[in-house]
């Protein structure tokens, strides 16, 4: 027998043992009632997940989409969110931006079943704005829910009225933080036509792998609720509320690059199929306006409804940059919801976004 053969066998044995240590065992070691109940729950969960994976295996093209051998995944990240309000018109407009809101997120995932938590511990990022979002990435469907409450919108109104004097032309009026509050809620869904070969989860959920570059046509719908509250101090508040449902389509593509890089880019454009707009004003503001309004103009009421010249347009871009190295991965993902409206020559835009800088490990 060659002297080198025992060394080779010993090396293979050590390698196999080291490899086995990174996988989840079939049972949780230990004795007692609690350990027994945990093992029972794990076996029940694995039974249904095995059935799910068997069903998915017949639906997916494994040359393009596959599963990772590791079952358990942990990740941590930094979530950043913010928004913008803008209006363009011949007589000027405004541009308001909210401060960036940041939080630390933690996530654990077992065979595609995930639980996550995010917080701003000890107010270390110093921002009072709040944000909450959920994304669910299935084989054929994707669902997003996003809520933002911003008290930090600030910026300036710019007037280019031709009746102003030269010294007043281009006068800027500063909008301080706290004057305008915005609450935005969006709920959207997408259907992925080429789900056999294209996976959103590979880029944004990291629960499976995209083996080859591929894309898909998308069908989507979105519900948006936006509420602005403008505080005029002693005169009271003005509320502007918009509800809309958009329906449209788009395209997504996953680029599989050398050295285990994955870049995903997609865009969804929807037209407002149903829109409802309403403004609510304090009685003080209504009384002042009606007292000094020009002759022939209509009286103002505490509740007014209004419409746009054209149906609103909703855009939902989504990007991801993911790099895998061994059992680890790093990435940056982002999603934004933008809707644009045109009313009496003014073009309004409302943008909210959330991004995640993340790091994860598979076991």
Considering the chains and any ligands shown, give keywords for the structure.
about 375 residues, alpha+beta, 16-stranded antiparallel β-sheet, two-stranded antiparallel sheet, 4 helices, about 15% helix, elongated, disordered N terminus
Give a quick precis of the structure:
The protein is 15% helix and 54% strand. It contains four helices and 18 strands. The longest helix is centred in the N-terminal third of the chain and has 25 residues, at 33-57.
Write up what this structure looks like.
With 363 residues, the chain is of the alpha+beta class. The protein has four helices and 18 strands. The strands form two sheets. The chain has a 16-stranded antiparallel β-sheet that branches. The radius of gyration is 27 Å and the shape is elongated.
- What is the number of helical segments per DSSP (H or I, 4+ residues)? 4
Average predicted local confidence, pLDDT: 80
Category from helices, strands and their pairing: alpha+beta
Poorly predicted ranges: 1-24, 164-171
Quote the distance from N terminus to C terminus: 38 Å
Q: Which percent range describes the beta-strand content?
A: over 45%
The residue fraction in helices comes out at 10-25%
Radius of gyration: 27 Å
Order of helices and strands: HHEEEEEEEEEEHEEEEHEEEE
Largest sheet: 16 strands, antiparallel
What is the strand tally?
18
How would you sum up the global shape? elongated
């Amino acid at each position: 027998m060659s002297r080198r053969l025992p060394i080779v066998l010993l090396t293979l044995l050590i390698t196999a043992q080291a490899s086995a240590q990174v996988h989840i065992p079939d049972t949780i070691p230990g004795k007692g009632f609690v350990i027994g109940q945990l093992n029972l729950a794990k076996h029940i969960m694995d039974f249904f997940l095995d059935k799910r994976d068997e069903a998915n295996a017949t639906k997916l093209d494994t040359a393009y989409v596959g599963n990772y051998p590791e079952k358990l995944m942990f990740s941590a990240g930094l979530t950043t969110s913010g928004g913008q309000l803008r209006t363009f018109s011949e007589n000027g407009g405004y541009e308001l931006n909210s401060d960036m809101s940041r939080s630390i997120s933690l996530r654990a995932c077992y065979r595609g079943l995930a639980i996550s938590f995010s917080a701003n511990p000890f107010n270390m990022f110093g921002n009072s704005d709040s944000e909450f979002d959920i994304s669910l990435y299935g084989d054929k469907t994707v669902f997003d829910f996003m809520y933002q409450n911003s008290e930090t919108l600030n910026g300036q109104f710019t007037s280019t009225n031709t009746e102003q004097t030269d010294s007043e032309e281009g006068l800027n009026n500063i909008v301080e933080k706290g004057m305008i509050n915005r609450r935005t809620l969006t709920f959207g869904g997408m259907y992925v036509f080429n789900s056999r070969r294209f996976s959103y989860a590979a880029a944004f959920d990291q629960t499976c792998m995209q083996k080859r570059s591929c894309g898909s046509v998308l069908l989507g719908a979105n519900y948006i609720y936006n509420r602005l509250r403008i505080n005029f101090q002693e005169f009271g508040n003005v509320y502007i509320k918009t509800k809309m449902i958009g329906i449209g389509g788009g395209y997504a593509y996953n680029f599989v690059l050398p050295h285990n890089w994955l870049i995903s880019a997609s865009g969804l454009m929807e037209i407002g199929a149903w829109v409802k707009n309403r403004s609510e004003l304090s009685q003080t503001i209504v009384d002042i306006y009606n007292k000094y309004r020009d002759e022939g103009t209509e009286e103002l009421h505490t509740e007014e409804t209004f419409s746009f010249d054209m149906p609103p347009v909703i855009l939902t871009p989504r990007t991801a940059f993911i790099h895998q190295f061994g059992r680890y991965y790093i990435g940056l993902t982002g999603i934004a919801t933008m809707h644009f409206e045109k009313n009496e020559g003014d073009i309004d835009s409302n943008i909210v976004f959330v991004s995640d800088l993340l790091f994860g490990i598979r076991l």
